[in-house]
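Record type: monomer structure entry
Structure origin: computed from sequence
Chain ID: A
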Amino acid sequence: MDLRDLIYPELIFSDIRAADRGEALKFLTDSLMERGFVKEGYYEMLMAREKAYPTGLRTEPFAVAVPHADPDCVLKPCIAIARLEKPVAFDEMGNETETVPVKYIFNLVLQRMEQQLELLQTVIGVFSDWDLMKRLEEETRPEKIAELLCGGGMEGF
């Protein structure tokens, strides 16, 4: 599957206001449901998985989270992306006693579990690209953000 098949400008959101991770993930879930990508129950599965397996990553220049859930409620695969107006705390991946102030959420919505590890590795590679992350921070147009991501090392995972 090509990354261009997963990134949709209508699922890229800039400067989202959220009080906490639950509110941020609810916003993304509602957006996914409205557009027919997931069905009822996705939010609960996402939150349960986030609690059991935290996805906050302490990356530079911005902390990110890569939440995902089992494919049971997925109708169509995609990546929903949110840049938060102010960071919110996510539990740190691999260190449940620490939190990280997440600025970007890349919600991986996949129909096959075996795709998640490879895509997760690809996405993490993007987060380590300072130049790309700075360009994402400056851009507000969803179409341009999609273009940056698809041309910024995330293609063809």
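Annotation 1: The first helix runs from residue 21 to 34.
Annotation 2: The beta strands are 7-16, 56-57, 63-65, 78-92, 95-109.
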